[in-house]
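[step 3/7] fold_predict: job queued, chain A
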Amino acid sequence: MKFKSEPDNDVRDMDISSMSDVVFQLLIFFLVATNIQQEESQLKVAIPVDQQATEAQAVDLAEEVVIDIYDNGEVYWNGQYVDSPDSVDMPELKNILYELKQAYPNQAVVIRGQRETQHQRIVAVLNACAYAGIDQITFPSDPSIYID
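[step 4/7] structure written:
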């Protein structure tokens, strides 16, 4: 058995021409795929404004409408007592919300409650809003806004 005593000193060169082709193909792809155009929001265009149209589009909104629901079930409309804890249908609140919707179609309503407020009572207020056709309802997300 014959063993090789000398290491093979043939240096084999690596052909990098195909790798450079791939790199250039990627470069061309990213250059073509990149959006070089200016965005419309960056263009400075002066659009004429019709004064009569802007005055006619001004919408009169009521002040902020807040419905407070206390843990005992009492409901307050902008600080005024509206419905008792015993009223499930909330007729007074429904009438107020319906009149609000007729006067201000785009008015939003903020519903605030305490941490101990029963969900059933909040759902009853949401049902009153649905009865009046009010679909812009918000709940405060900041805990400091909730009523004490």
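[step 5/7] annotate
Helices lie at 17-33, 51-56, 91-103, 119-132.
The radius of gyration is 35 Å.
exit 0
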